[in-house]
Amino acid sequence: MLLLGAALLPGVLIVVIGRWSDAPAMQAWRTVCLAITVQAMPFLLLGTALSGAINAFVPERVFSRLLPRRPVLAVPVAGVAGVVLPGCECASVPVANSLIGRGVTPAAAFAFLLSAPAINPVVLTATAIAFPGRPVMVLARLLASLATAAIMGWLWLWLGKEKWLRPAVRHTGHREGAGRWREFRQGFQHDFLHAGGFLVVGAMAAATFNVAVPRSVLDTFSGSPWLSVLFLASLAVLLAVCSEADAFVAASLAGFSPTARLAFMVVGPMVDLKLIALQAGTFGRAFAARFSTATLVVAVLCSAAIGGVLL
Amino acid sequence: MKRFVQVTLLVLSGLGLLHVSLFTDDYLRYVKEGMRPLLVASGAVLLALGVAEAWSLRSGAGDDAHGGHGSGAGADPHGGHGSGAGADAHGGHGSGAGAGLGTGASGEGGEADAGRAVGEGHHGHDHSRLPRVSWLLLLPALSLIFYAPPALGAYTAAREAPKAVDAQEHFDPLPATSPLPITLTDFTHRVQQDKGLAIRSRTVRMTGFVTPGAGSTWELTRIILSCCAADAQSVKVRIYGVPAPRANTWVSVTGTWHPGGTLGTASAPVAIDVRTLKKVRRPVNGYQDALPIGTS
């Protein structure tokens, strides 16, 4: 509800104020909001279809065979497995949820959730295109994202509590006597409607910041190395740019240090407004608040460390 | 949430996506042209889901409550709601989403109550319990169908620092045509990076939209997307010599470089002295820095 308020209130304010003074702002807000929704929709559908399919068609033993039995080892393996999901971050939340439902240890599922949108081939290729002649940027992004995902998985093993997760895990898998296709269709449909609503909340919040914060004020922060890292990291959270595009945005932030831009690309696919909304809807608010905060801190530290060494 | 609402949400979302991607070019206001097949496919999938849901709703309204595969009330714990009062019990649950148990179900008598109790205990496979936040999907769906907002324009461009153009080492000789059609990005490259100074005293022609600036000057602008309108960046060329047309008007201008600083370095202003100005139609895909078409 808080998130909903945070998303709606500024939007409503803009509507009200916009009527009198600044109608183009309102139009830009609606355009950006729709753009985020439209852009994310195919990937969200892909993710929810995958999660429905995992739920209905993939037997539980497949995962227990693929992943190492010990959770400590399963975490990095699941992180690396993120390579196979070619999409942006909206697809990974429902998939991670259905993995947990199929008996995958939550820590490994979260490592997958964090790494998949950042290290898949589509995103890495886009990064290479956005930073021509600097392949080290791609390497730094890959390493920093993997490190963050693995550390977050281990952190969950160490500190995480089941009770933060929403108790009702809806994905119960295939049951005797029910049509698999029917289960697939209903799981797919439910997940899409559920996540879609939260996607709209996130898009509204992101559009609000996108329109309210002109990018020209950014340059005031580019002087100090530490401040610029923190600033670009929080910008990644607020702007909620799709992970397939954030490399281009990062490349355009020419005034900032390479490490700060790396932080932008590492944080963006893991923590942003629409993701927080999606996670809150899928795993519960108690989880989303803690998990996103911790991920933000870990991601900033990882990119600072790896950026410091490589860039 | 009632299944009817789910059908409506799915069908409207599907139609919205199909409307902007298949029937019109409106999707180009929000995303890049490469997204079109994905959007059409998504719209078709959503529509199919909605139709399938409506079909099962129609054919099985009586004995096929949503998620209820069981036939005997309470006998199948996963079925959730028993068969007899199934449809109604389901409705009760739906409206109770988020607020706890539905009240409608309890009015159905023992049968429905039993089914509900078991279903709750199992946190069963009850896909009818959707949060109210799903209603928000109506906004983009209806907006896409009836009231699609325009592409980003002068408002956004005026508030953004111009896109940093990448460094270009090698410059080919410019074609001899005059006026020379050139993109805003290319012009910026030529003015600020070309040590051969090929752009000097050449008449160029560029197309873009009008972004009013301070005082009497204005800027010819293009907005470029990397992925969607949330990451819009702009390239601008400052215009001297003609008063600004209305903001967001698409114009084609010819003129020569406006001298200042040292040509071929970053100190050179990206600006032209305009000789002719002509209003043009907005290109179908406005979010790219394309060459002007046609003759002036």
From TrEMBL, chain B:
Residues 63-127 are annotated as: Disordered. Pfam families: DUF1980_C. It comes from the Bacteria. The lineage of its organism: Bacteria, Bacillati, Actinomycetota, Actinomycetes, Kitasatosporales. Residues 92-109 have a biased composition (Gly residues). Keywords: Membrane, Transmembrane, Transmembrane helix. The chain crosses the membrane at residues 39-57, 135-155. This is TIGR03943 family protein. InterPro entries: DUF1980, DUF1980_C. Residues 201-287 form the DUF1980 domain.
